[in-house]
């Protein structure tokens, strides 16, 4: 994964880093947690946040918790790699991240494997009915890199009026049938 991809993950998922270091400048500044790590210090920090900041952190925390442990470990390693970069390079990566569309920034909340493909998967999976969210996420996390690449091609080729039917077909497939189905759809 590129340095930029790593930076995107770190900005989106603040629990891989201290809160202050991971919050994009587009979000109002949040007070740094008390250094002592005391419960009172943490409570004071939380109390100082606006409702918008609290919602943002809750959302990011939920995204972090939803990631498989292997993805979280990749992000922890990325945090260490980015923290080792010179400050100017860290700031340049943050600025580059903030220049991308909010929809694509939000895609990085899905973790490194899906975040990098999100711009291409978004047409098919960006707007899901509530009942399909969990099954789709489970399915996407089961696919390997080649299958995700095929699915990203299908996503970009599928007209809007056919996306729901395509998702329904994909969700109905047994895992053993997915590879052949993906190859068939890409071959069209």
Automatic annotation (TrEMBL):
Extent of the signal sequence: 1-21
Classification via Pfam families: DUF3106
InterPro entries reported in the protein's UniProt record: DUF3106 (IPR021455)
Key words, A-Z: Signal
Protein name, UniProt field: DUF3106 domain-containing protein
Organism annotation: Stenotrophomonas terrae
Lineage, broadest ranks: Bacteria, Pseudomonadati, Pseudomonadota, Gammaproteobacteria, Lysobacterales
């Amino acid at each position: 994964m590129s340095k930029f991809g790593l930076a995107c993950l770190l900005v989106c998922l603040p629990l891989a880093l201290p809160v202050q270091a991971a919050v994009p400048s587009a979000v109002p500044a949040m007070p740094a947690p008390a250094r002592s790590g005391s419960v009172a210090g943490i409570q004071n920090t939380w109390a100082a946040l606006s409702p918008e900041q609290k919602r943002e952190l809750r959302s990011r925390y939920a995204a972090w918790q939803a990631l498989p442990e292997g993805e979280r470990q990749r992000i922890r390693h990325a945090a260490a790699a980015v923290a080792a970069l010179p400050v100017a390079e860290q700031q340049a990566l943050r600025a580059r991240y903030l220049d991308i569309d909010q929809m694509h920034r939000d895609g990085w909340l899905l973790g490194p494997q899906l975040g990098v493909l999100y711009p291409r998967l978004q047409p098919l999976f960006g707007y899901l009915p509530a009942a399909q969210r969990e099954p789709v996420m489970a399915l996407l996390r089961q696919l390997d890199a080649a299958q995700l690449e095929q699915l990203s091609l299908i996503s970009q080729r599928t007209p809007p009026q056919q996306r729901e039917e395509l998702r329904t077909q994909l969700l109905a497939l047994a895992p053993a049938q997915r590879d052949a189905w993906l190859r068939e759809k890409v071959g069209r």
